[in-house]
Amino acid sequence: MILRTRHEIPTSDARAFGRARRRTAATRAVVVALALALAVAGVASARDLEPRSNELVPGGRSGVVVLDLSLSIVQQDYAKVRAVLERLIRSDNPMGVVIFSDVSYELLPPRTPAKELRPLLRFFTRAGAQAPPNPWTPSFQAGTRISDAMALARQILRRDGVSPASIILISDLETAPTDLSVLGRILGGLRRSPVTVRVVPLSASEGSISFFRGFLGEDAFVDPVESRTGEVRSLEVSLRGELPLALLVSSGLVLLLLALHERFAGRLTLGSGREWRRV
Predict the structure, then answer these.
(1) Tens of pLDDT along 48-61?
(2) For the chain, what are the domain ranges?
(3) pTM for this one?
(4) What is the CATH topology of the domain spanning 58-236?
């Protein structure tokens, strides 16, 4: 058994220290409470630093894939669609799916496990392979209305309370002329909202790309990069990170509080010659 020696200073005036002791205890309690609150705030802010960010779904967000299945989508675009779906499956981000042409249809609700996208891959075979008949084509008519699909995606995200969220539009970006004004309003609203929008253009014209770029900005586009063999291997996009200001401020305040604690609520140190004892 190890006995610890306590160094005490006998005094007949101990009651005179009562007020200082209570003040020190109260100061210590306040400092500790504030430090714990700041630590909790720092942990909460760190959860928003998007550690799982990737070019399609920033921060591992849940969202909705908006997939164009109109007649203008040709088989040469299928490899690009498949590459995007495969990337989403690998990233394991829960996603919903909206398919559209002239009408829009909710195929999968938000927060659906990414593995549920695998059955869609067989409809987007690689070049040279014969794809099975698309089961949704008979329900679609000629024409495309992208605004309805984007509005539906936004609606189901709100319905299911998904926030923050992401919308990934896979399309040739061609829509009916009468749809342009409505689509512009929806894209502008999404740009101002917390919803992140990514666009994967499929053989899109420069005019259509310019239209979407004007509302969403250049950073919204995800361009498939083809290898020399023509197989889609990876996707290229610029990423931007935000300064974790809340985390830095809370961490700095915690350090400041610890310093204040040592200054105003630390134990009294007395010296005797070269030896120092803490009491």
Answers:
(1) 544 444 467 776 67
(2) 19-47+244-278, 58-236
(3) 0.61
(4) Rossmann fold (3.40.50)
